[in-house]
Amino acid sequence: MLKMENIAKVYRTDTVATHALRDFSLYVKEGEFVAVTGPSGSGKTTFLNIAGLLETFEEGQYQLDGIDVRDLGDSARSKLRNEKIGFIFQGFNLIPDLSLFDNVDVPLRYRGLNAKERKARIDEALEKVGLAARRHHLPSQLSGGQQQRVAIARALAGKPAFLLADEPTGNLDSLMARQVMELLESINKDGTTIVMVTHDPDLARRAQRNIQIVDGQVSDFDFGQSRRA
Ligand code: ADP
Ligand code: ADP
C-alpha cells in the first residue's frame, strides 16, 4: 500500500515559496488502479514524484508497503525505489541509439542481476507488451504507442509492486492511447498497483478509482465506485 498523510511540499526560490502540496492525504491499496486528474499546476507530478521517491517532502507521513519513507537516507530511498517502483513518462525516455532489448536492460544492469536473469526478464517483459519480435530494433523504428510499450516493458522488467505513470498517453493518438491503457489494465490484473496521472477523462473513467487534485490537495475522493466492466 501507499499511504500519505498530511504531506506538505514547498518549492522555494530566493523570493517565492510555492506550496505544491498541502495537507495532502491519500491511501492506495495493493492491487488498485487509480487515475489522478486535476488542472495544470495543481500538484499531480509533485505527488507522483514523491510517491516514487524521486522527491522528498517537508511535512507529513508517507508509508510505502509499511516502510516509513520520511527518514530514509538517499541510498535507502534509491534502494526502495528500485525494489518497488516502476515509472512511465509522457515522453517515453528511451535511449535512441540502443535497441529495445538494451533499453529494457538499462535499469536491470544497476541491480546486480546476472546476464541470464536479465535476459529472462527482458524477454518476458517484451513478450508482455507484444514487442518480442522487434527486440533488435531501435526506438526510432517504432510508432509512439510502441515506444511507450517499450518504456512499460522497461518498467515491468524490474518487477515493481507499483507502476507510476505521468501522462503515459499524452503524446499518443486516441487509438494508441487505448492500446496503452489496455496494456496497463492487463498489468494491473496481473497484480501491479497502478497510479496514473492523465488529462484524458475517458481513460480516467476506466480506472477503478478517480481522484482529483486541486491546489495541492485531494479534492475528490471517489472510494466506492468500480467502473470497470
Ligand atoms: P501538475 O503536475 O499538476 O501540472 P506540478 O506538480 O508540476 O503540477 O506543480 C505544482 C506546483 O509546483 C506548480 O505551481 C509548479 O509551478 C510548482 N513546481 C513544480 N516543480 C517545481 C520546481 N522544481 N521548482 C519550483 N516550483 C515547482
Ligand atoms: P508533464 O507532467 O509536465 O506533462 P512529463 O510527463 O514529461 O511532463 O514529466 C513529468 C515529470 O516527470 C517532470 O516534472 C519531470 O521532473 C519528471 N521526469 C521526467 N523524466 C524523468 C526521469 N527520467 N527521471 C525522473 N523524473 C523524470
Task: Walk me through this protein's architecture.
α3 crosses α4. The chain has one domain (2-221): 3-Layer(aba) Sandwich (Rossmann fold). Residues 223-229 have low confidence and may be disordered. It is globular. It starts with a strand and ends in a 9-residue tail after the last strand. It is of the alpha/beta class and 229 residues long. The protein contains seven helices and ten strands. The chain binds adenosine-5'-diphosphate (2 copies).
CATH C-level class: Alpha Beta
Low-confidence stretches: 223-229
The total number of structural domains is: 1
Which structural class matches the secondary elements? alpha/beta
CATH topology: Rossmann fold
Let me know the number of strands: 10
| Largest β-sheet summary | 6 strands, mixed
Strand order of the largest sheet: 6-7-8-3-9-10
Distance between the termini: 24 Å
Q: Can you tell me the overall shape?
A: globular
Percent of residues in helices: 25-40%
CATH superfamily: P-loop containing nucleotide triphosphate hydrolases
Arithmetic mean pLDDT: 93
Q: Under the CATH scheme, which architecture would be assigned?
A: 3-Layer(aba) Sandwich
Secondary structure topology:
Layout: E1 2-12, E2 17-28, E3 33-37, H1 44-51, E4 59-64, E5 67-68, H2 74-84, E6 85-89, H3 100-109, H4 115-128, H5 144-157, E7 162-166, H6 174-189, E8 193-197, H7 201-206, E9 209-214, E10 217-220
